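> call design_seq(struct)
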């Protein structure tokens, strides 16, 4: 069958580098794309996107069958028709403009009924054939078949009552319109299965239903179905939290690292052995398996039989011929390309040899590529990915870049002992990094009893006094820095949330800031005090930012975290604060001071974006008035400490 082309573009999406796929939805190709590991659908972009890889055509080739990935330059190619069920147009002049009305269903804050927001957009004919308008049909969860319950009059009334309850509960919780749509779709199927009589279902019945219903769903749809059912019982009926263990979810397949010709040549510069150079070329440029290599015959012209199609270029073929020639000339194998004492090397021996090459020649660039490409397939925040890779590379460096296959329990424990003087948070992050890469990338899960975690402790957050914050704001020279400190303290923002604020996120009239993709990829609103109105307007008039509220030296680029941290340290010194300070102390101070003022802790939980109320409750220890008003027994003693004298030279 002739190969077909699937066009893609590389772009940033929510701070993450992703590959956008362009094709007609509702076709067989959509089902193929959905089963690619790490594939997600963007409602805002109206397209499917997958994790970024340096060589996407090679990496994703095994999932696409007869389709070939090809970069998309601009607009859609002429041979791909654009289908859109949401847009219908009659005959039109190519130079004319098209006016269309797009309706979005949303939930008005504080109301229990949907409202219709209407946006009128004008697009030219060229824009009409763009991805922004293609495929605007309504997206629904991938359920095996549309469920239409057969109900009598009484059952239908019960069913509609449950749907009404569920919808009202979601609106009261102010779930996003998209979440409401997805949850309701799954809940209708669930309620219809039991003919609306779902209030009395016990855990076993729910578990049995979820296990059957999720059998043919992907990972994302499985999580959505479970969340939809849990919402009804936990949020509406106030039952205890339920956990549904559906067994081990199959790990995403990690494909081997592929080095391009320039990279493989650079790696081979350190290697003098013809045998090792050829083995490295086979393993990391052609990605041939150890079993395949063990069966290769000692033939100078064998490269024509197995070199992959994507690598069939004159430069690769020339280098391969040279490597095979040097290998045969030096080692003079009799029958097999890879022999030991005249005997054919086994696949295991070749695999272990490749692992030892990485350590012997300290090929850290290959390790780094393995870690980066492996973790890209998982839904971690960019900062977490970078941190995990950094921790694991430091771990490998300490062990001389020994391959994880050969690393023992004792070596891991000795490395962790060397970190005992570090903070508990850093130790736990290192352990998480080791557990992830050993299990997911190198397929060598570490037993739980191998790595003891540091003892948990209740660390109270460090906060500024109100007078200290006032002193810092009054002594800060640059207005921009003063405004940034004031916004963090006034709204309880994290550093990354402040630096990620865009101009459209500032709701000055409403006194709110919209936090986009906060920790845990959660959106929320927080406070923007009207007292900052004059400061903010003066700053915008003077700085004129283009995209982000606070930009660096380059227009359209966010302000750097290092510059903001240095500005806070300078402001603290000017204010006479000589202890160690950091930006998160402003967020701690926001919470502590509001609790001291009597604010409801559940409101603070929403403002801070905490998933658990227990996280917010930590601050109550800092704002405990009863604790501070308790008198010490020392105050009741009649002896004055001023009267106590010590002899010169004595130790009290």
């Amino acid at each position: 069958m002739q190969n077909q082309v699937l066009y893609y573009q590389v772009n940033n999406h929510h701070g993450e580098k992703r590959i956008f796929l362009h094709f007609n939805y509702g076709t067989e190709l959509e089902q193929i794309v959905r089963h690619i590991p790490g594939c997600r659908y963007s409602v805002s972009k109206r397209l499917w996107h997958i994790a970024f890889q340096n060589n996407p055509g090679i990496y994703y080739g095994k999932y696409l069958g007869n389709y070939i990935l090809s970069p998309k330059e601009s607009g859609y190619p002429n041979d791909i028709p654009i289908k859109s069920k949401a847009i219908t147009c009659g005959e039109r002049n190519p130079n004319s403009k098209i006016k269309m009305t797009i309706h979005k269903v949303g939930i008005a804050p504080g109301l229990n009924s949907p409202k219709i927001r209407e946006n009128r957009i004008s697009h030219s004919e060229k824009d009409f054939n763009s991805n922004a308008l293609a495929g605007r049909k309504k997206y629904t969860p991938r359920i095996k078949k549309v469920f239409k319950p057969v109900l009598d009059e009484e059952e239908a009334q019960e069913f509609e009552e449950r749907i009404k309850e569920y919808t009202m509960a979601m609106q009261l919780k102010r779930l996003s319109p998209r979440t409401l749509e997805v949850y309701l779709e799954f809940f209708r199927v669930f309620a219809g299965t039991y003919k609306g009589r779902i209030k009395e279902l016990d855990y076993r019945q729910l578990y049995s239903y979820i296990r059957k219903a999720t059998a043919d769903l992907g990972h994302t749809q499985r999580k959505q179905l479970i969340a939809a059912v849990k919402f009804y019982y936990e949020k509406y009926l106030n039952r205890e939290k339920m956990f549904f263990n559906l067994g081990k979810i199959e790990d995403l397949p990690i494909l081997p690292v592929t080095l391009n010709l320039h990279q493989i040549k650079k790696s081979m510069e350190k290697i003098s052995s013809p045998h090792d150079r050829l083995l490295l070329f086979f393993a990391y440029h052609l990605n041939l398996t150890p079993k395949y290599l063990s069966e290769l015959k000692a033939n100078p012209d064998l490269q024509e039989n197995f070199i992959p199609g994507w690598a069939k270029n004159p430069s690769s073929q020339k280098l391969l011929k040279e490597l095979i020639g040097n290998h045969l000339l030096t080692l003079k194998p009799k029958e097999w390309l890879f022999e030991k004492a005249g005997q054919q090397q086994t696949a295991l021996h070749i695999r272990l040899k490749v692992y030892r090459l990485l350590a012997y020649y300290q090929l850290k660039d290959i390790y780094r590529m393995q870690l980066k490409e492996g973790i890209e397939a998982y839904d971690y925040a960019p900062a977490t990915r970078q941190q995990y890779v950094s921790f694991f590379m430091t771990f490998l460096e300490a062990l001389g870049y020994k391959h994880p296959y050969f690393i023992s329990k004792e070596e891991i424990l000795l490395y962790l002992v060397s970190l005992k003087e570090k903070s508990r948070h850093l130790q736990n992050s290192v352990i998480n990094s080791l557990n992830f890469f050993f299990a997911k990338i190198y397929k060598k899960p570490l037993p739980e009893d191998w790595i003891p975690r540091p003892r948990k402790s209740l660390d109270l957050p460090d906060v500024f006094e109100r007078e200290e914050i006032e002193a810092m704001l009054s002594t800060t020279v640059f207005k921009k820095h003063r405004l940034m400190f004031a916004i963090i303290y006034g709204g309880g923002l994290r550093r990354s949330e402040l630096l990620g604020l865009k101009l459209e996120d500032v709701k000055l009239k409403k006194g709110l800031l919209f936090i986009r993709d906060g920790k845990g990829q959660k959106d929320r609103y927080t406070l923007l005090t009207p007292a900052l109105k004059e400061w903010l307007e003066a700053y915008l008039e003077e700085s004129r930012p283009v995209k982000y509220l606070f930009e660096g030296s380059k227009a359209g680029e966010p302000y750097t975290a290092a510059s903001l941290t240095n500005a806070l340290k300078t402001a603290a010194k000017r204010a006479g604060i000589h202890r160690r300070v950091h930006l998160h102390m402003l967020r701690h101070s926001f919470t502590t001071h509001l609790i001291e003022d009597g604010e409801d802790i559940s409101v603070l939980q929403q403002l801070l974006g905490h998933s658990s109320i227990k996280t917010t409750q930590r601050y109550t220890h800092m704002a405990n008035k009863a604790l501070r008003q308790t008198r010490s027994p020392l105050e009741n003693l009649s002896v004055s400490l001023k009267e106590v004298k010590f002899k010169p030279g004595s130790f009290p």
